[in-house]
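Structure ticket #2291
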Amino acid sequence: MARDGSPPRWLERATFVALAALLYFPLHVRYQNPDQDYPALALYELVRGGWAPWSLHYPSALNNLLRAGYALGLLGARLAGHHLDAGDLLAAWSGDPAPFRIPPRFIAMTGGVVSLVAAARLTALVTDRWSGLLAAALLGTSYMFVREHHHGMYDAPASAAVAVSLALAARYVRRPAAGVLAGAAAAAALATSFKYNAAVALICPLLALGLAPPPPGGRRRALVAAACAAGATLFVTSPAMFLQPAELVMQLSGLRAAYRGLAGHDFAYGFLDVLRNGLGLPLLAAAAVGAAMAILRRERALVPLLSFAAVYGALAWQTPLPLNRYALPLAPSVAVLAACGLRWALADGLRAGVAAALVALGLSSCLPYLSLIAREDTRVAAARWLRAHVRPDARVFLPGNVMTAGYLGPDLPRAFALPAELSPTAVDVLRKKLSLPFPHTWRFFAPPGDRAGSPAGPERLAPWSNAIVVTSELREGPFAHESTPAAAIADLERWAILLADYPVEREPDRRAWEPDLNYAPMRGMATLLRPGPRLRVWYVPKMDASSEPPPFVDGDVP
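Resolution: structure written out below.
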């Protein structure tokens, strides 16, 4: 222990290294998650040129950050004597998108480290460094936090920016300074530029301004500095918010209408399930104690955090689509309040025991999750088998449809449209660089639901004669109605040839799923052999005398 009673530096470093390991492992694995290729729009924007985003469905901060990274990479390649351009990057992505999923995941994971540091500093500001270290440990071992920072999406960096804004707002309340308030406002604006729903954080600098004594130079000067910092951050990271206001309003209206359309769906999984499975009831109880004691102690530095948690939590409670990632910005606040509650309510010895129990409970979900996603996904394994054994010009029928095949079926490169703004010459040059999709033509296995008019016997499979059929099965949660119909599976089992089978269940049941096509469950990870649906690859023997060759690379059934 340090002389001032703080934790030793080596312990702090070791704790943060261990917590970072939970975030960065297994970055090297081709694990899958929903919407994982959405940030690839940054490549489209780089190829097309100009400042305007491809879409305002999400703000532009993440895509602009990726674009800057790609541009720097191309500059480095040119300096090293390699004449590459944006088209070469898009061509590489068309052949194998997996390497391009690593940068957004790395950004998300690094955002998690930023959140850990912000939570520790905020807690230390109102209590002590031991409690700050505990806040980081509670946050970094919560399943919600670890899970969502493995997804290269917009939520993790938005949550990190929110955590920084909350920490700076608390610091301003304790030690008012115009620069600190400007930093809090800029961080809140950056959060908004990553994800629209993080705009709730913009209230925190305003609350801090009203709670603290006037800083040197006065409140008006601090407010102007904060407003300028927020506006400049938004303009630099998402200029379309200022330059395309009509498009922004249309996109936000569309999102609102989409959520209203979901309001009639009665999901069995609700926001309470999100909090229970993502954070755990014991951690939430400790946070509730911390919130109550902060109010009783009139801890002004925590008012911005409490206000953000209350407003954001109320909005998240009303969302018709209860997803773990939507609640992620609440996780740092919960960890801070829990650490403060343990510090204020319990003696040292009891506090250490409760803290250890909370960390152990969190790890009991985090470690099985990391173990699961570190194993090869069935969609990756099936894709490798198909590319090794099936001709790219063969007829291959994939599960799902054009919208869901990327979630339900093999992880294969697919066709995509080039930016319409490109000249015909540029399109021709680019098409020569691009890899063809695999298979060259995507087809989908869609057996008729009503079999009353279907022929009996193997003739029922005649539409898929001499073709490869891939089926997808996991008949629970949100996957039940997306799985290949059981009757079609029975036909294939009876009259087709099974070529490859990738089962996933070690034990049935005991799993909880959020309403998203994410094959890593919220509870029951240890009951699965690997992530993904059960994929089976079938060959339907030829039923006619056509001259069509078999679909296999070597000509014979593997």
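Closing remark: The longest helix spans residues 348-373.
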